[in-house]
Amino acid sequence: MLPRLAVLLVALGLLVAGCSRESGQVPSSFGQPPEPPAGPLEPETKQALDLLFADLRFGVDRAAVETIGASGDARLAWVVSDLLRLAQIGPEADDLVAAFERLTGVTLGADDLAQGPWKAVTDRLIAWELPAPPDYVRYKAASLTLVEPRWEPFFADPEADIDWRIVSWGGVLIDDRPLGDPDPCPQGCIPALDDPAVTDPAGGSWYPDDAIVFGVVVGGEARAYPKNIMEVHEMVNDRLGGRRIGMPYCTLCGSAQAYFTDGVGGRDLVLRTSGLLSRSNKVMYELGSKSVFDTFTGRAVSGPLREASVQLDQLTVVTSTWGAWKKAHPGTTIVARDGGLGRDYPADPLRGRDDSGPIFPIGSVDPRLPVQEHVVGVIAPDGTPLAFPASAAKTALRAGETVELGGVRLVPDGDGLRAELDDGGDVVSHQAFWFAWSQFHPGTGVWIRRSG
Q1: In angstroms, how far apart are the furthest CA atoms of the chain?
Q2: How far apart are CA 345 and CA 325, in angstroms?
Q3: Is 72 helix (H, G, I), strand (E, B) or coil?
Q4: Is the dihedral of CA 167, 171, 174, 177 positive or negative?
Q5: Which end of the chain is less enclosed by CB atoms within 10 A, N or C?
Q6: Rounded Cα–Cα distance for residues 107 and 34 (Å)
Q7: Cα 391 vs. chain centroid, distance in angstroms?
Q8: Is residue 388 in a domain?
Q9: Domain-located, residue 296
């Protein structure tokens, strides 16, 4: 018989997110944070923590939670958040919410709890940026590896540049299949698509002209990746224009990106989906080294590749309809209808899952644009992040206006957008939801259309 908490974890895995939102609005602020103490934990509190995590596989020790809540140490709210991710319903969840309220002085109302207690708690903690308690990474490892023991290597690098406070379980397990494995994960993961079968535009007539593709061009060779296939796999390892590329698609962030993965330390890297999230962004890792990457920047943040200071070179991804993309790139290829795997892909795998706003904790958001506004994100040559609202930019370009900010301008590609420098030079761009771009690039400049 499975331990009680393991049964709950299975249920949460089936729910995937374990929470939902009825509104796309996310507060830009959650009020003033509580004042955390400094220094070591009180002996009684540390004893309760050690007891709780030693027996966590059998359930949440409610007496230990009571001791933690009574400690008055607001830093321990991070531990409460991690436990709520595992126990979101029942009396254990009620105890954890009560502990959070005692630790922080915040009373969660019915509207807060309607979105799920874990999200209500964790949104506040991310926004407040409270420090973590001493020895926090050990407790985090204990809770996460209870879900997926194969995450253990991610905790092996003591110098890892990972903020474990904001890392959470995304509801699926790790994809650690070898390169080219066509089979799904037996216990449930988001399986990468490796070296997919492709066809020419005529062979791509199965895909509707008005459906979205993510277009990439390498060495003059263009390829379109259908959105419905990317929503199933969320990661592609491919060869294009004589180069190896890895292409993560974070459905939660609306962000398809692409990186060159060949010749890194004398070998080609293989990117995989970990099953973890950071501020609702998928956490990707490299299969051979078990090194974690910042998906939004392509920087290795743990493991041997972090030690080697690996920073993957990024390339532009254009979000376009298929009809417009193949017209702009008549020599393009497109991933075959079955991906080369002999499988069927639904036209709309997510069925509007992300239409009402972020379903995972993200903390506060930059209020300058709506949370789910699609923006074209660019890092200017001087390192300044820039964001162009995609809809407004397309409207301006159709009106004959110039869309320019910080020495970067947007130009049409298919019926999508790509960026270039004012002198015509190349600069990398990709599309994402505003909340994601702005959180991973704080202080970003925003282009505003001044006419029309």
Answers
A1: 70
A2: 21
A3: coil
A4: negative
A5: N
A6: 13
A7: 23
A8: yes
A9: no
Strand-by-strand arrangement of the 291-294 sheet: 167-169, 271-278, 281-286, 291-294, 299-300
- Report the Cα 361 to chain-centroid distance in Å: 11
- Which of 111, 130, 147 represents a domain boundary (last residue)? 147
Average pLDDT over residues 322-341: 98
Do the domain assignments include residue 78?
yes
Note the residue count of the chain: 452
- Its sign, for the CA torsion 186, 187, 193, 199, is positive
Q: Which of 147, 162, 197 is the last residue of a domain?
A: 147
Q: How many domains does the chain have?
A: 2
Q: Which residue range is the domain that position 383 belongs to? A: 374-446
- Number of other residues whose CB lies within 10 A of the CB of residue 392: 17
Model confidence pLDDT, tens digit, residues 13-43: 433 333 333 334 455 578 899 999 999 999 9
| DSSP code string of 191-238 | --EES--EE-TTTTTTS-TTSEEEEEEETTEEEEEEHHHHHHH-EEEE
Predicted local distance difference test score (pLDDT) of residue 26: 53
The whole-angstrom separation of Cα 391 and Cα 365 is 20
Beta bridge partners of 285: 272, 292
Please count the other Cβ atoms lying within 10 Å of the Cβ belonging to residue 303.
22
Confidence of residue 355 (pLDDT cuts 50, 70, 90): confident
Which run of H or of E encompasses 357? none
Tell me if 190 sits within 8 A of 286, measured CB to CB. Answer: no
Integer angstrom CA distances of residue 155 from 44, 159, 187, 229: 26, 10, 22, 32
Phi/psi for 264 (5° steps) reads -95, 110
Q: How many CA atoms, within 13 angstroms, populate the side-chain half-sphere of residue 374?
A: 19
| Sheet (strand 445-446) strand order | 429-433, 374-379, 385-389, 445-446
In angstroms, the Cα distances linking 415 to 7, 149, 325 are 47, 44, 7
Does residue 233 fall inside a structural domain?
A: no
Q: In terms of pTM, does the model score above 0.90?
A: yes
